[in-house]
Amino acid sequence: MSSAAPPAPSLRPGEPPPPDYYRDNLLRLARFVMTEHFDLLMPEDERCLSAILAANKPAQRLFARLITRKGPLLRADRLSYAEVADPMPALEALADAGLVHLNPEAPAGELLALLTRDELRSRFKAADRPKPELIEAIVERHAEPWIRAAVKAQSHWLAVACWPGLKLAQLLFFGDGHRDLSVLVLEDLGWRRYEDYAITSDRRLFRDRDEIDRYLRARLLNEATHNLDQLPGMAHPLSKALVACSAPPSRLEEKTLNRARNRLGRWFERAGEWQAALGCYAASTAHPARERQVRILRRIGEEQAAEGLLRTIAQAPVCAEEADFAVRFDQRRKRCAPKTTTKALGLAGTDRIERHAMKLLATEGGEAWHLENHLPRGLAGLVFWEVMFAPVAGVFLNPYQDAPLDLHWQDFAATRAEAITAQKERLANPAQFAETLRRTLRTKVGIANRLVSWRHWDGYLIERLLETVPHNVLLGLACRVIGNPGATRTGFPDLLVLYGAQDYEFVEVKGPTDGLQPAQRQWFDYLEGNGFKARVLKFKA
């Protein structure tokens, strides 16, 4: 796939998709996984994908629609799609191929939920009441075989039979089992083009089936941490399983385990089980594990241990949030309040507060853009474009990504340390920085990059930045983002304001009842700590 020649769109806004649109996307997924990841599939996964590829066209069209429907049970008499003239033969073909189950066993309540309230009243001669109460009354009054027969008399039902294989295919294709083929719609509408990066077998997300199985186990453990309020007896066995996991071979598994450990640690905190919480956090390498440990140690009177860990965090924070915590929590270190200008709100009319501020700044000779985080993130995306799309193992899985899979992972920069350092050295030259910014805009405009919102960037803005904002400021913003993209998604001041070709400032606009959020304070600490011009414009009623 080439970014230089965007594909001809196969969808047109406001028009129905071509008959094979959803089918073709499904086949695109199945063929890609069968070709690129065949050695990672279990026999049942291979059977699922092979059955999809071998089915006749009407069955493929129907199946592509079924997997987008909310289940697990679907009514057969509600299957109506323009591209499937007669759904029943297609449905029978899918059943013969083992891709769907017809009239599978299911709890009576789930079967009854398929019917409308009027159908329930008519079929079961029930009094008028809310549907949940109707279902409960019917289940209490009738035997399950009789209910099943009555529902079948109204409509047959079905369920997709091979969700594990489909979910695995989505995981291998997208790097996330929760994403689906809707990601292709933007490209097929002609609204999005993607960078032309290499996808090779030696840079896959998983090296072998053992890594997949380990990750799937980690994901199950993570999902279990969401159910502890209903099943509190799981907490300690779950903690033992999470702490006992050996050093994971994949970054994705480690990230998933850390998320589970941190969530379980918070559950133990709320339950007042301090030692259990400390054990979970000690096993985690992701923020806010160390922050939570400091807070717990202080709470239980372990002042010396808390102070030691706080010093360790201050000396080597793993992210900007940790550095901010070390400053806020150490009462001996005072943080300075951002420079603030107060103005009377006056008559803002129907304008948003930022638009009102822009008009006010214009009367003072300022040309303002309401960019917020699009400014530093866009700068980083443009001048570190090659770093963003560098050939790192396990981060580019399919041709439809606007960023590497790990863009917002804590170890994004560490994984690309050499490339980032080399690019920083090149960009340290102001002329090289300007040329990189201009060249990227010229050659990459319109290509999807999650850091760059193209509707906010154009040649005029870039030239005004280069002539007005000092090089060290622009480079500093870009470097801070590329050092930890996940921690810089929010908080940057609302407005970029340029005064002629001589001066600039970043302005955070606050209404009468607004205050700075933690992410905004972190940005102000950085901006003021590096001598960059920034202030809060506070309106009072």
What are the salient characteristics of this protein?
7% strand; single chain; 8 strands; 5-stranded mixed sheet; alpha/beta; 541 residues
- Number of E strands: 8
Instruction: Summarize the main sheet.
Output: 5 strands, mixed
Mean pLDDT, to the nearest integer, reads 89
Shape: globular
Based on CA atoms alone, the radius of gyration comes out at 28 Å
Unreliable stretches (pLDDT < 50, length at least 5) are: 1-9
Q: Beta-strand level of the residues, as a percent range?
A: 5-15%
Distance between the termini: 56 Å
Q: Name the strands of the widest sheet in spatial order.
A: 4-8-7-6-5
Task: Kindly name the structural category.
Answer: alpha/beta
User: Helical percent range?
Assistant: 40-55%
Total domain modules: 3
Number of helices: 26
Structure commentary:
With 541 residues, the protein is an alpha/beta fold. The chain has 3 domains: 116 residues, no CATH class; 129 residues, Serine Threonine Protein Phosphatase 5, Tetratricopeptide repeat; 201 residues, no CATH class. The protein is 52% helix and 7% strand. The protein is built from 26 helices and 8 strands. The protein has a 5-stranded mixed β-sheet with strand order 4-8-7-6-5, with helices on both faces. Strand 7, helix 26 and strand 8 form a beta-alpha-beta unit. Helix 14 runs antiparallel to helix 15. The N terminus is likely disordered.
